[in-house]
Amino acid sequence: MKIPPENDQFSLSNDRISSLLDDIPLINNFKGKWSSIRAKLSDLRTQLIDVSEFPNSSSNPLSVDFLHSVLKALSEAAFLSEKCRNPELSDGKLKTQSDIDSVLAKLDSLLKDGEVLIRSEILHDGAVSSSSSRREAVRAESRNLITRLQIGSIESRVLAIESLLKLLNEDDKNVTIAAAQGIVPVLVRLLDSSSLELKERAVAAISIVSSVDGVRHLMIAEGLQLLNHLLRILDSGSGFAKEKACLTLQPLSISKENARSIGSRGGISSLLEICEAGTPGSQASAAAVLRNLASFGEIKENFIEENGVIVLLGLLASGTPLAQENAIGCLCNLVAEDDNLKLLIVREGGIELLRSFWDSAPSVHSLEVAVELLGLLASSSPIAEALISNGFVDRLLPALSCGVLGVRTAAARAVHELGFCTKTRKEMGEAGFITPLVNMLDGKSVEEKEAAAKALSSLLQYTGNRKIFQKEEKGIVSAVQLLDPSISNLDKKYPVSLLASVMISSKCRKQMAAAGAGLYLQKLVEMNVDGSKKLLECLGRGKIWGVFARS
């Protein structure tokens, strides 16, 4: 098939290729290399024919740029072939060989660009009319940019990715459309670019894609190839690139498999270094990744080896509010069920740092991790005493009545841990802890209800607090409702213990019976719930024998 004569660019390219193919057999120098050039020229001519058959090939900017690059390379090849026909090789053998290798590399690059151009749908796209939908316009622009990112010079690719960043930053819907067109694997390949500028913009674009829930799975699908690129950026990238790499790692590090890969490839060490000396933004992002990693027990040893607790406490002392919040969240995951790390936090001034963060927290939401850490530290009695002496009982009370579910739930759990002795239980009862905990028995979530019942079962071990509880109008009824077996994922031993502690009161027994406790308890006895049988017997007799020791 002949290239249409009316298309001057394609016709001129075809003529130059034909001329070169005729000249090459006449060249006696570097015959092997010129044979390779001849094969590539034949392939390039086939590609030009394919491109010319697209209806928009003569007007599409990418097609026009491709043709310009082809003509430039063909001119260099023609000039070089003329020099090589001269046996003297005026520029010398080494220089000529270098020039031939350069032409071969350019033809290789053009063949790859042509393949991308033909394989893409960009040459099918016409001009987007004013009546076209916004979605179709974004889809066409995405295809255009995806193609531009894969062909041409570094400079042209940088311009393309700048346009892509602008498109992605406009709207999450644009991100979804671009991802559907295949932008993710293209961006991942750009992370291997020799251009620092292109690489930084690529990781910035990837971080935007990773922030959109609907397309996050496409990032995860890139697997170790993407992880390895990101970890290299953590080691040697700029502050900007490190921050964007950390943002991308946040959703990736939720996976146990990815967490293991990050830990085994030195990622924790790199992330801790960023926490120590990175930009404020990169510190917060790195701490968020570490927070995810610390939730996997097998990774904990890596933190210990890298002195991670000390680094996180340093970030808690001097980081931004978000960095501090993520550092505390990471510490929560690290110290769970590890008394040695809890004691290390206390020795290194962790209680004072926690108190400082608590008092300056930018929002109630950010307090959730602080309250959680308080509860974890308080599970160790010696530490609990230190926390009480540092005024955390007074700080905890408002958290029980705040409007954030997670904070309330964490606060109730902390009350249970801090109420380890009669003195503290008495202090909490007199301070007004009972009422908000009773309100939480009717809370929005099962976790909130269970945490409140658990805290009350601890506080009501003090006699004075039972009297306060009995005065709460809905306390008994709310506790009885938690006995209902249909409320799943709630440990029934806590409402059973709570009710058992006030069984001595005839008024309370009547309230329990009226609220249906007997029927619920019969079912709990069948389920072998601790304390349910004894509570049912006491309710039936109207007496209490041995439910708790009198003092």
TrEMBL record:
Gene3D superfamilies: Leucine-rich Repeat Variant
Residue ranges of the TM segments: none
Keywords in alphabetical order: Repeat
Keyword hit for Repeat: yes
Residue span, DUF7032 domain: 14-121
Protein's recorded name: Vacuolar protein 8
Gene source species: Cucurbita maxima
Underlying gene: LOC111490111
